[in-house]
Design goal:
The protein has 319 residues and is α/β, with parallel strands linked by helices. The protein has two domains: 5-174 and 212-237, Rossmann fold (3-Layer(aba) Sandwich); 175-210 and 242-275 and 294-308, Alpha-Beta Complex (UDP-galactose 4-epimerase, domain 1), CATH 3.90.25. The protein contains eleven helices and 13 strands. Helix 1 crosses helix 8 (214-226) and helix 7 packs parallel to helix 9 (245-255). The strands form four sheets. It has a seven-stranded parallel sheet with strand order 3-2-1-4-5-6-11, with helices on both faces. Strands 7-10 form a two-stranded parallel ribbon. The chain has a two-stranded parallel sheet with strand order 8-13. Helices cover 40% and strands 17% of the residues. The chain has helices at 14-25, 59-65, 82-87, 89-110, 121-125, 143-162, 185-195, 214-226, 245-255, 281-287, 295-308, and strands spanning 5-9, 29-34, 50-53, 72-75, 114-120, 166-171, 173-175, 199-202, 208-209, 211-213, 233-237, 243-244, 263-266. Helix 1 links the parallel strand 1 (5-9) and strand 2 (29-34).
Length: 319
């Protein structure tokens, strides 16, 4: 690994729990900055890393987190829900924009050598000809997407004005182990199957998404960390596979051995896209990024993880 000291914001969350393990296995010294509002310290129990409990909106916490020679920052912490952002504009803006600016300022001040920003492909680009790519005109339709586009813009500005080596990675719909607090279809459907409740689909099930297994995502993040890229680079980490939500539900019902598990259809939710998947050719060319996990295999691994941890009280918690 090129950088030996890495700060991961939001490291106790779903992606962080997987990424920190990957970084540690690659020999990095890791520090986590997390306010525990959405993450869970139990996700990284038993591992050796530094912790700063604090909010990315707090400049003092951010300064503490970057002290001691942090070489690279991977900024995962976010107000990370399209649907929640509609009713919480202030919190969404404060965390995703003000928090990102705080981190960029401190990274620039301390001479951080690489700053990776976790963005979102579908939410940032919005309704655009498919598949979306780095050349798609961003027109977000949700406050969450708008806040992530602001974060990308500030990353580009800090690269241009302060020569901070920033990279914005636009994630597809990520799923996998430790995702019990994620507000997404895979988690919701698995919880319904485990809890014996109907699977709820908003709309008629024809909406599509690009589902990326978390191990493949972490490989892409680490490749971006170790690859010399032009400051301000934006890359999609995705699969280029378009999957309908009803097909996802059927796949999980089959994996769970419950092909007739009930499905309830409800009205579509505001600010959600009807179709989305992304072209990752630029990440393939620059990073050597290629997702290795087919959807069925990734869903089976995720289902087994949930089943193995089903006794944990927090697992079916909706918060």
């Amino acid at each position: 690994m090129l950088f030996k000291s890495v700060l991961v914001t939001g490291g106790f969350g779903f992606i962080g729990a997987n990424l920190v393990r990957k970084l540690l296995s690659d020999g990095a010294r890791v520090r986590v900055l997390d306010d525990l509002s959405r993450g869970d310290a139990a996700n990284l129990e038993g591992l050796e890393f530094d912790v700063v409990i604090g909010d990315v909106r707090d400049p003092h916490a951010v300064s503490d987190a970057m002290s001691g020679g942090v070489e690279a920052v991977i900024h995962l912490a976010a107000f990370g829900s399209v649907t929640e952002s509609v009713g919480a504009l202030g919190d969404n803006f404060d965390v995703n924009v003000r928090g990102t600016v705080n981190l960029l300022q401190e990274a620039s001040r301390r001479g951080v050598k690489k700053f990776i920003f976790a963005s979102s492909g579908g939410a940032v680009v919005g309704r655009a000809p498919l598949p979306v790519s780095e050349d798609s005109l961003p027109r977000p339709v949700s406050p969450y997407g708008a806040s992530k586009l602001c974060g990308e813009a500030y990353c580009h500005a800090f690269a241009g004005t302060f020569a901070l080596p920033t990279v914005a990675l636009r994630f597809a719909n990520v799923y996998g182990p430790f995702s019990y607090r994620k507000r997404g279809a895979v988690t919701a459907f698995i919880k319904a199957l485990l809890g014996g409740h109907p699977i709820v689909i908003y709309g008629d099930g024809s909406a599509t998404r690009d589902f990326l297994f978390v191990d493949d995502l972490c490989q892409g993040i680490c490749a971006a960390l170790d690859t010399a890229l032009e400051p301000g680079t934006v890359l999609h980490l995705a699969t280029s596979v378009e999957t309908a939500i009803i097909a996802l539900a059927d796949e999980l019902r089959a994996i769970a051995g419950r092909p007739c598990h009930s499905i309830r259809f409800e009205e579509p939710r505001a600010a959600e896209l009807s179709r989305n998947f992304a072209n990752f050719d630029r990440a393939r060319r620059l990073l050597g990024f290629v997702p290795r996990t087919p959807l069925t295999a990734g869903l089976e691994l995720t289902w087994r993880w949930f089943r193995a941890h089903a006794a944990a009280p927090r697992l079916l918690d909706e918060n």
